[in-house]
Amino acid sequence: MKIDIILAGVGGQGILSIAAIIGVAALESNLFLKQAEVHGMSQRGGDVQSHLRLSDQEIYSDLIPQGKADMIISVEPMESLRYLPMLSPDGWLITNTKPFINIPNYPAIEDVLAEVKSYKHNIAIDADNIAQELGSPKSANMVILGAASPFLDIPFEKFENAIKSIFGKKGDDVVNVNLDCLRKGREFAEKNK
Amino acid sequence: MQKLLLLGDEALAQAGIDAGMSGIYAYPGTPSTEITEYVQHSKEAATKGIRCTWSANEKTAMEAALGMSYAGKRSMVCMKHVGLNVAADPFVNSSITGANGGMIVVAADDPSMHSSQNEQDSRFFGNFAMIPVLEPSNQQEAYNMVHYAFDLSENLQIPVLIRITTRLAHSRAGVERMDSKKQNEVSLPQNLRQFVLLPAIARKQYKTLLKNQPHFERESTISGFNQFTEGKDKSLGVIASGIAYNYLMENYPDRNVPYPVLKISQYPLPRKMVEKICYECKEILVLEDGYPLIEENLKGFLGNSLKVKGRLDGSIPRDGELNPNIVGIALGMPDCKGKDIPELVAARPPSLCVGCPHIDSFLGLNEALLKYSKGRVFSDIGCYTLSALPPYESINSCVDMGASITMAKGAADAGLIPAVAVIGDSTFTHSGMTGLLDAVNDKSPITVFILDNYTTAMTGGQKSAATDKIENIVKGLGVEEAHIRIIKPLKKNHEENTKIISEELEYNGVSVIIPRRECIQTLNKRVREKFKNKK
Q1: Which of B146, B205, B265, B309 has the most CB atoms less than 10 A away?
Q2: Which of residues 182-221 of B touch A (CB under 8 A)?
Q3: Cβ separation A39–B349 shorter than 8 A
Q4: How many domains in chain A?
């Protein structure tokens, strides 16, 4: 078994917190893991991506081969499209619909979303809105992770456990709202896949 | 033993802590910064008393590490590839002095220039200094190599270079730790002239270095880091170095490569192992992340009769980082690339943060320069280099640490008056001070901006050696007090700041303007932590 994931977003959006949860869930499932991150100059509001690889066998390359990624998980819609060359023809494109506009030539959002929806396997979710409704605007990442979870071959409770262990220090309220976000995202994906 | 999920950088750092290192020396530089940061944040390192604060630049770091080695203790010095240029003088000479306590130099290269101005390959520097070079292929090997390299350095009395690239530095994987070693006691070199490179002594020491080359090569053959794997199909042999080996294996999901493979992770090249695969196989494909070092060596000592494929014959692109697809295509496999990027996707380059003090500095400078012709602003390495891009388009150079002041001086010497230099606080104490002294001694008509945001911002907000010292340094170097101007770069001060800048541009001598306001990133972080502690 292997799962290759591209995590995408804009520097400062915190894609690495998604990686951290999947990482803990994977280690708890005794999987091998490799995760290539972007540090340095690009973090200043530029496009950033991370390659996250899970497998039950030893993983060699830190980079996912182009065209072999099983999934793109993006916290920003235009950024989800930037990594299409990485995605396998049967892969899943899972993205937030809320744009992050810090450039003057950002394309019309309707066009971006139409492009996302033209892809065979896609989940487009307004994670910011859902997280806001649940009372934790900062937890949009967990909504997106929840939306990706049905397509990850890892038992769902491993994700829940990972959230408990990572957010545990911050108290029960924080843990519970993040769990709510995760479940809501999953529910949406189950309905819309 | 405990398994940790570590970046390649962190694996090197943890290994140093475990292998009896007494001090780590470095100036921040992507992708090497996290090595030293890991030691700084490690409670274990603090308990062990490992020395780990930032150095002013890579040269001072290298020399301090050499001093610690002289005194018999284990030291590590870390830098990005271009940092090794700054430290080249002590680095090359340290191969002549040799080491006493184990000394490791880590150079983190950046092929594809993710965060750098070139993609130079530090293996060439190791080759040039004629010292052993290690090139780990994964995080575990990086960890193991630090233990090995300290021992090697002490046994053969020579500094050892560990060369990594961005991909390994910033990728995380499980790492198993080894038993912890105690730090060395202070013990001076047996020969107290070992480090005195007077010509007569240096000549002797150099002969020792030359005599030791076969020992270094023997280590490359027996250490186990270089590995030959048999393969049935001798129409091709593959030599893969460092992480390029991973991209080779990635192309064979069952991990059975049909060709003979030589994995290289230690230099000098093990000549016998290289000869074996070259004589056995009809053609050789060389995979290396960086410049064609092995490829050039092969052509050098085996002549043109051998068909070598690699970066020089176009089988692999001449520049840029490798990846599994590039390697697959060179092995004759189909390209499996997915859909193209849709045309509507716009580039999203990095930019100055909202609220960044540099924005106000550049808006003031731009306005003050309106009455002069364009193209007179020399800049440096840091966040402020992003002012080259729209909407500011303020600067006209970015070459190396400190080059802003000296290039402005040279341009002013040539008649470009006024010439402006823009340099950050940390870059100024890294390499700007000596250039400013040159300008003062020559009374050069330049205006120097030292952008003081109290931090080394681009690499993530490390402590700046310049904090609270800039005015005194500048005064001490001889800049007249009347022409040292401190401004606060805020929107509401724009008019006043522009006026001050205009006055100094007109002054026919060295002016220093210090726009001073905390980096918005470190400010936010500080406020967040304060809030957290209050709760």
Answers
A1: B146
A2: none
A3: no
A4: 1
Q: In the prediction, which pLDDT does A39 show? A: 74
Chain A interface, best mutation among B138, B326, B348, B352, by max A CB count within 10 A: B348
Q: Which residue of B has its CA nearest to A65?
A: B324
Single-letter amino acid, residue B13: A
Q: How many CA atoms lie within 13 A of A33 on its CB side?
A: 25
Domain assignment present for residue B198? The answer is yes
Is A16's Cβ below 8 Å from some Cβ in B? Answer: no
Q: Is the pLDDT of residue B209 over 70?
A: yes
Q: Please give the full DSSP string across B238-277, using - where no structure is assigned.
A: EEEETTHHHHHHHT-TTS--SS-EEEE-EES--HHHHHHH
Helix (H) / strand (E) element for B9: namely helix B8-18
Q: How many CB atoms lie within 10 A of CB B528?
A: 10
CB neighbour burial string for B261-299, b if at least 16 within 10 angstroms, e if fewer: bbbbbbbbbbeebbeebbeebebbbbbbbbbbbbbebbb
What is the per-residue pLDDT for A40? 66
B215 and B233 part of one domain: no
Look up the domain containing A131 and give its range.
2-99+107-192
Domain housing B470 = 357-522
Domain with residue B292: its CATH number is 3.40.50.920
- Per-residue CA distances from A57 to B172, B255, B485 (Å): 16, 11, 62
Is the pLDDT at A29 greater than 60? The verdict is yes
Q: Does B509 have pLDDT greater than 80?
A: yes
Is the CB of B247 less than 8 angstroms away from the CB of A78? no
Nearest to A63 among B31, B245, B323 (CB): B323
Q: What does the alpha-carbon distance between residue B298 and residue B22 come to, in Å, rounded to a whole number?
A: 39
Q: What is the pLDDT of residues A43-96, one digit of tens each?
A: 678 899 999 999 999 999 999 999 999 999 999 999 999 999 999 999 999 999
| Shortest Cα distance, chain A CAs vs residue B330, angstroms | 14
Q: B460 and A39: CB-CB below 8 Å? A: yes
The three-class DSSP label of residue B86 is helix
How far does B399 lie from chain A, in Å, by closest CA? 16
* Predicted confidence (pLDDT) per residue in B221-238, tens digit: 999 999 999 999 999 999
